[in-house]
Amino acid sequence: MIRVELRKQIRRLRTYIGLGICFGLPVIITIALKVGGPPHERGGGNEEGFFRLATKSGVNMPIAALSVMSMFLLPIVILLFFGESVAGEAGWGTLRYLLVRPVKRGKLLRAKVVVAFFLAIIGTALVIAGGLAAGIAAFGWHSVITPSLAVFTPRAALQQLLIGAGYVVWNFSGAAALAFLLSTMTDSPVGTVAGSMGLVIVSQILDGITAVPAGFRNWLPTHFWTAWHGLFVVPSERTDMIRGTLHQLPYAVGFLVLAWWWFKRKDILS
């Protein structure tokens, strides 16, 4: 079932477009930095700091690309993979024919979640691959300087980046599970992406307002999204990454359980 679902998803145009954006945008950013020169120095958080240092080494580029894209564009692509999985079938009218066959609904949902998660991993890997290939070609293979002024060898920086990429993918799980839940409720993939991305945007806005109580902000689904930046300080800071990993569990499990409960009772002929 998973093999069939993977073959189906890979053949869809939106998969090529989404994965193409993941690989192509870091390349475009690298070309822009190479032609236009490094960005002007200015204040800002680690996201801007990584971007300012992107021209220092080819390995800085994938770090900067993941830091920038993981806050907005990459979540949209990944939420599309999850949000379109069931809603797309319903919209095309193929969902009822899938379930006419002797396929249990739970098994169908499991295959779709596994394939969507696999595509999320591929999309994140392509962000790194595109940034690394273009970065090395444009800026060479040099030591990596981070916003905290720590210096890493290229190999050590790539090892930290791979850990950070895994953390980034997992931190999308709460919003992705919501997109999947909405996908079982509607036949509009656009609505599923808009609904789940709305949660992400509202969470980011509230998290940035210091007047909001810290106890509330600490439970927002995006609060620990940038905790992987702690991998690029000396010594590395992983406490928030551990908290962020556990932080997504109630969101992911809760939304997926609701998705299973809803879909098993859904009238697919309606």
Concise overview:
This protein has helices at residues 2-10, 13-36, 46-52, 60-69, 73-92, 95-100, 105-139, 154-171, 173-183, 189-207, 214-217, 239-247, 249-264; strands at residues 144-145, 151-152. By secondary structure, it is mainly α. It has one domain.
Largest sheet: 2 strands, antiparallel
Structural class: mainly alpha
Number of helices: 13
Count of the domains: 1
The general outline is globular
Which strands sit side by side, in order, in the main sheet? 1-2
Distance between the termini: 25 Å
Give the overall pLDDT as a whole number. Answer: 89
- The counted number of beta strands is 2
**What's the gyration radius in Å?**
20 Å
Order of helices and strands: HHHHHHHEEHHHHHH
Low-confidence stretches: none
Work out the helicity level. 55-70%
> Could you tell me the strand content as a percent range?
under 5%
